[in-house]
Amino acid sequence: MAKKSDNPYVVQPVMKALKVLELVARHGHEIALTAVSKELRIPKTTTFRYLQTLTAAGFLDHNRTTDRYNLGPQLRAIARADASVSKVRELARPAMIELMHEFNETVNLAVKGNGTIVYIDLVEANRSLRMQARIGDSHPMHSTALGKAILAFLPEAERQRQLDLPLTERTGRTLLEREEIERQLRQVKRVGYATELGENEDGAMCIGVPVFDEDGYPVAALSISAPLMRMPHSLAAKAGVRLREVAAGISTRLGSPPPTTAG
Q1: Residue ranges of the alpha helices (H) in the chain?
Q2: Domain at 79-253, CATH homologous superfamily
Q3: How many angstroms separate the CA atoms of 194 and 27, rounded?
Q4: Is 0.90 surpassed by the pTM of this model?
Q5: What span, in angstroms and rounded, lies between the C-alpha atoms of 167 and 42?
Q6: Per residue in 139-178, pLDDT tens?
Q7: Sign of CA dihedral 94, 99, 104, 107
């Protein structure tokens, strides 16, 4: 068993449960309770509780026939999600650099959180006035072009669950009326890209498009952000079309061409 941490904030039972999970993952195939208990030097009754808790949470799978444990669906889903995000970032990066040079504005890449989008990459323009987002930041889905681009193409039930979450007011222009948000999302689905005008950050504009995985699911979104004064309507429309083309290329390389749009 690993040395006990000197950090007073570490919850030791959680740490031990994670060690159990790590051991099962490293084992590579089904492993018995007694083997886990012996290798980690944890009493069998305690080990059993850890294994059953991890199984209930979906991180492990318990084969009742053999009474052995293996990796569960939740852990595999997390691994797939991490691999998917890494692949999207790798495929999108060259296109993001190209878009930044083409429009001389910041280009963002984000994925869906719980009612939010999380920035996983950005390429900043070399200009004095730039947007405030940073990698790792999370912003509401309903107030960002990135979020609207994802929301518009989510399965209906999932979209409604996202919109049922509390709607945060980021600026005086943030949309909070459900009916108006859903009207905008229908428009986004028709034209293939989303826009937001000062709804997430005062004085800023953003144009966003979805990126689809092999199942046709909006796994990420790509956007160009700029101060409103540098993004007139004609340039925003051009950016939307260009973003849509770039996202279609990334989606195709992920295995799923984006849905046909009318715009």
Answers
A1: 12-27, 33-40, 44-56, 73-103, 145-153, 156-164, 178-191, 233-254
A2: GAF domain (3.30.450.40)
A3: 46
A4: no
A5: 46
A6: 999 999 999 999 999 999 989 989 998 999 999 999 999 9
A7: negative
Helix H or strand E encompassing 207? strand 204-212
| One CATH from 1.10.10.10, 3.30.70.100, 1.10.1670.10, 3.10.180.10 for 12-71 | 1.10.10.10
Q: In whole angstroms, give the CA distance from residue 37 to residue 51.
A: 10
Residue position matching structure tokens 């799923």: 256
Handedness of CA 172, 206, 83, 74 (dihedral sign): positive
Q: pLDDT (tens digit, 9 = 90+) per residue, 42-59?
A: 999 999 999 999 999 989
> Concatenated DSSP letters for 54-86?
HHHTTSEEEETTTTEEEE-HHHHHHHHHHHHHH
What are the residue ranges spanned by the domains of the chain? 12-71, 79-253
What is the 8-class DSSP label of residue 131? Answer: -
